[in-house]
Write a structure and sequence with these properties.
Rossmann fold, carbohydrate binding, Peripla_BP_I, seven-stranded mixed β-sheet, globular, Bact_Solute-Bind_Prot2, 17% strand, Sugar ABC transporter substrate-binding protein, single chain, SBP_2_dom
Length: 368
Amino acid sequence: MPPPPSGERCTVRLVKLAAVAVAALVVLGACGSGDDSSSSGGGKTIALFLPESKTTRYEAFDRPLFEAKVKALCADCKLLYFNADQDAAKQQQQVEAALTQGANALVLDAVDAGAVAPLVNRAKKADVPVIAYDRLISGIAYDYYVSFNNVRVGEMQGQALLDALTKAGTTTKGQIVMINGSPTDPSSADYKKGAHNVLDGKVKIGREFDTPDWSPDKAQQEMEQAITALGRTSVVGVLSANDGMASGAIAAMKRAGYPTLPPITGQDAELAAVQRILTGEQYMTIYLDIRSEAEKAAELAVAVVRDQKTDAPAKVDNGTAQIPSFLLDPIPVTADKIKDTIVKDGFYTAADLCTAPVKAACAREGIQ
């Protein structure tokens, strides 16, 4: 059979090329959709709500770690961020704004965890999953809770203080002051419970305070009141629920003229607190692996906007429901443990810690 005319040959060639191109596009499209399945959230929106900024960890660690993990897992997910500045009414407005803006998942560290059930209920009615972050929300069921074993935190703080008093031989020679966290934060009750589990019957508690807003300034005032009431020489130790309040208590004791500061506990491994531990002003802190907490919350948030279910290893009773929970382990840190925990994990570098006033103390602990 003779070959087709040149025009027909061109037409056949073009048809064949077009077919090949279409097939290639189909293959590429299939590859693209497969590649994107692990990073796409369908343009969904995730909202993160943090309670305040007086505690260093929230802006320095929780927020950037959470945001980075979400972006790594879901490149096209949109992020909304809100900080309530310890104002429950402001946080309510923020949650309402996020829902109005079309948030598909809420990660909520509540200012007042006992009062946000109506907000969670509103999210549920809009079919928006809720993850309680760091603080257990009470009064309503929701999707997940991510935090640390808070009673264990208090037990570790109490045991560390008891160990320090026993070593100093002052367990029965004076009284301790307990500076607990905010009464609107249910974690505070857990920390307090854990500390009392260890300390009750073993030391005399001269004064105890529940500190509004976890405020270092208010903690300083409380410590000043305790020193005035009990007498300077009577206070042999301080149970402070976090590092910020420890700084206030230390300021009060310095102002009162303590020649040597009694042991004082803390929590959050704030940079200034770790430096105080190295120089001997603060006895210990609780190191919380905030990276693990923030990243787990981010993983759950991405999973829920993709309609994926994640099995939780535990359940926590919030008074209304058993909440699927991820509870991470706290780590007590004294000066001799800083190198093998905080520095080893890269939470702070030696350069971060070992500024001029702390350099000699770092050298003593082998931090360089």
